[in-house]
Amino acid sequence: MSTATVGVHRKEKAAAAALVEMCSVRVGQTLFGVPITHILEIVGSPRPQPVPLAPGFVGGLVHYRGDVLTTVSLRQLLGLPPKDGSQDILVLESSGGCFGLLVDSVGEVLTVSSADHEPNPSILDEHRRALFAGAYKLKDSLLVMLDPEQLDPMRLGAELVA
Amino acid sequence: MDELTREFLIESQEGLDRMERCLTDLEQRPQDAGLIGEIFRSVHTIKGTTGFLGFKRLEKLAHAGENLLGLLREGKLTANRPIITGLLQLLDGLRAILKTIEAEEAEGEGDDAVLISCLEELQRPAQVEEKQQVHAIAGADSASAHPAPVARKVKKSAKAAPISTVQASAVTTQTIAQPVESAPSAAPVPKGPEGDVARPLAQGTSAAESTLRVDVSLLNRMMNLVGELVLTRNQVLQATSADPNMTMLSRRLDMVTADLRESVMKARMQPVSNIFSKIPRIVRDLSQSLGRRVRLEVEGQDTELDKSLLEAIKDPLTHAVRNSLDHGIEPPEVRESAGKDPEGTLKLRAAQEGSHVIIEISDDGAGIPVEKVRQKAIERGVITRDRAAHMVERELLQLIFLPGFSTAAAVTNVSGRGVGMDVVRTNVEKIGGKVEIDSRVGKGTTLRLRIPLTLAIIPALIVRSVNQSFALPQGALSELVHVPAEQTAAVIEWIENAPLYRLRGKLLPLVFLDRLLRPGSEHKVAAERDKFIAVLDADGRRFGLVVDGLADPEEIVVKPLSGVLKDIGLFSGATVLGNADLALILDPGAIALKAGVAQREEEPVGAPESESDAAKHIEYLLVEAGGRQAAVPLTDVLRIEQLPLSRIEYIGYRPVLNFEGQLLPVEDSGGVLTAAQDDPKAQGNSEQQIIVVVCREGNRHVGIAVSHVLDVADGGDLFEAGTTQRTDGVTLLKNHVTGVVDLGGVAPLAAEGEVSGEWSQTVETMA
């Protein structure tokens, strides 16, 4: 798994840092992108086990390769109503360890150019501005980039306390 | 940090641990060339490798030590107390630098000049002595000259293979040491260390070839994967159960998985000698600073325990040893005047007992003065005077585990601040263990740590609440009470908003798990559902946890939770159940704390039971029958059955019970059955329940009909006034004289007759 990640890194560098591969995910109406270098695996999972008394953004626990992963529900994080039916989980790696990101559905991998990237618009509310890392202009829509480091449950938890 | 440095740190730490062990041994056997050789090698390896890695400060210090050790090894010096103290200081100095390197990847700025000059100082008398020795040997070539035989011994054994390499390395050391000292150029250094590093390795071939150093995190990962494999196996077993061809295969998979799991668990085990080896040094230092004479005896060093558990009991063990030395073993003069050997004995014993490892720390010191504990406890307001008067010795001893409790007359720098024993208990309970204490004034104290074999897998009861499964560690669970739906409203009593349950006549605070987990929402006192009360003992807090349902007990694999979820404070981890569901592991201590259940200070639980005590105190089941109390020895009780009265049948006039296909004579000298049958209200009521205590008597089983089961209590022997004759048939229970049921007196079924067990009269003494 890690060799694959390294491989992608190299390829990225070789392409003069112009092209980035993003895994597109959909939550509600919005299309989000997560750099595939941070994704360990995509799991179509049964419903995560809820954790009573957990902070609102926690989507529950899932069993992943012998470990128990805490998931962050992007829906709950953005204050959207809960969704019925199946959801997908991206297993992400951040400096604090692994965690799951609960999304409505996972789309294709898109290759975007850094030339099409623009920072967060100033009219976005502060909470979202901290979570999003700008957007890529696609042909017919926008791909909002997510920064896995910002979504780490430890960081979100610390922010909640502060 | 680069690989090489890390390797060096691990190796050096191991070397220093070995050195510490050898040093304390050396004090006993100052002539042992093997020990000196071992110490020399440890320091020498560090010095060699540091030069190579460029840690100058470490190198200088190690070099100073090496010079001193060289003299020792050549027999020019004998290891006396100041030298060993100096070497121990060197050890601490080296450790401190290694620690700094580990933290900062640099040696730090500290100055070792004092220590180095101290080490050099220690070499000096040697030189004088050396000359004298030479004279002595030259003058009279006799073995009477003290160090001479040692020198010879070394030379002689030099011919033997393992030590000859030491000799060789010594030569290289000297040649290398000089250039390094005169001009600290890097050039000649690498040549030396490489050779030197190789040598000790070569020496340890037998061990090195068959063992491998493995990162603990890798083992943890393996453990996880094995857990995963177990789950996949379970699913495969389920999916293939219909196909006969697959059954064979999946059964093999089953076996291999079980074996694999066991092997991985074994790989995590380490001998307790890893932590016991630190003790001799502590004993040495403390006995010197406290002016005690102590002999340390260690037993069961090769008992194995999970690595993480070993780490966890390191501190409690150290605390316990400190306590023994400071409060337990008396100064030599005191011991002598008490007619004891002036040298005290501290015993460390480790042994495996079933799924637990027992670690015992016992001393033959002064013991814990129970009266002093009683007074201190009253003084500090821990217990009331009235209560204190009633407490038996064993209950009082439990008080020393309370935070801030100390009987030490004066606070020393070693202990007596009263933080020791509660830390011991907290740490041991944290890993699911138990602490027991047994002490006799004037004879000594024994502290027993009961540690589960492994942390990774614990037995747990799966309970249901808020439509989810939770795992409740069995360690804290003392009993379960089932409350049928129609009784919930009646049985659970309230003082304002505090729910309580009468457990054998005593009020037990209740905590509703669903209310705790969903604090905001409305909760009816759900009368429509059965409830279960899990009676828990956690950190001396006793309470009942009310849950909606019970599932099977399971051996669960504990998985850590992420920080965010740990912060909730109610869950100690999570686990994957056999049906692949996830369950959170409840932390009974944290629940008690959150719900505000107070520590039952005046009535500590988990009372210890030691062999010596067991002889005097027998546990009894206290029952009530026909308005009188009676006691049944707990060891004879097999089970307590609540069953409908209609189950009781009669042979002639003798009541019997058809119990699991066996005929059980039921003893009814309390008249419980007769009273129940004659009860007019009960006529025609098939629901009427009676309680039968099923006991073992010799090779047969007998039942005793009782009206209530009251409690379990310790009974003491009673002596007839003026004699030391034990009275049979009665015991002292809770300060009441209570009759013991004579099980032997229950007539066998075959023998028709009037003989029946007698309820001895309960005589109530004035309390």
Structural descriptors:
heterodimer; A: 162 residues; alpha+beta; five-stranded mixed β-sheet; disordered N terminus; B: 767 residues; six-stranded mixed β-sheet; 25 helices; disordered C terminus
Plain-language structure description:
The complex is a heterodimer of chains A (162) and B (767). With 162 residues, chain A is an alpha+beta fold. Chain A has five helices and eleven strands; from the N terminus they run αβββββαββββαββαα. In chain A, the strands form two sheets. Chain A has a six-stranded mixed beta sheet with strand order 8-1-2-11-10-9. In chain A, strands 3-6-7-5-4 form a five-stranded mixed beta sheet. Chain B is an alpha+beta fold and 767 residues long. In chain B, the strands form six sheets. Chain B has a six-stranded mixed beta sheet with strand order 10-14-15-13-12-11. In chain B, strands 21-25-26-24-23-22 form a six-stranded mixed beta sheet. In chain B, a hairpin with a 2-residue loop joins strand 22 and strand 23. The A-B interface holds A 49-55, 58, 61-63, 65-70, 96-97, 99, 153-154, 156-157 and B 223-228, 231, 466, 468, 517-519, 559-565, 567-568, 570-571, 573-576, 580-584.
Short description:
By secondary structure, chain A is of the alpha+beta class. Helices cover about 20% and strands about 45% of the residues of chain A. The interface of A and B includes residues 58 and 99 of A.
- Helix-and-strand structural type of chain A: alpha+beta
Total number of beta strands of chain B: 29
Q: Please give the order of strands in the largest beta sheet of chain A.
A: 8-1-2-11-10-9
Query: How much of the polypeptide of chain A forms β-strand, as a percent range?
Result: over 45%
The profile of the biggest β sheet of chain A is: 6 strands, mixed
Spatial ordering of strands, largest sheet of chain B: 10-14-15-13-12-11
Greatest contact between two chains = A-B, 24 and 32 residues
Overall pLDDT of chain B, averaged? 73
Helix content of chain A: 10-25%
Number of E strands of chain A: 11
Distance between the termini of chain B: 70 Å
Question: What's the overall geometry of chain B?
Answer: globular
Count of DSSP H/I helices of chain A: 5
Low-confidence stretches of chain A: 1-8, 10-15
Radius of gyration based on Cα positions of chain A: 16 Å
Which assembly state applies to the chains in this document?
Answer: heterodimer
Global Rg of chain B: 34 Å
Class by SSE composition of chain B: alpha+beta
Strand content of chain B: 25-35%
Helix amount of chain B: 40-55%
Task: Name the helix and strand elements of chain A from N-terminus to C-terminus, one letter apiece.
Answer: HEEEEEHEEEEHEEHH
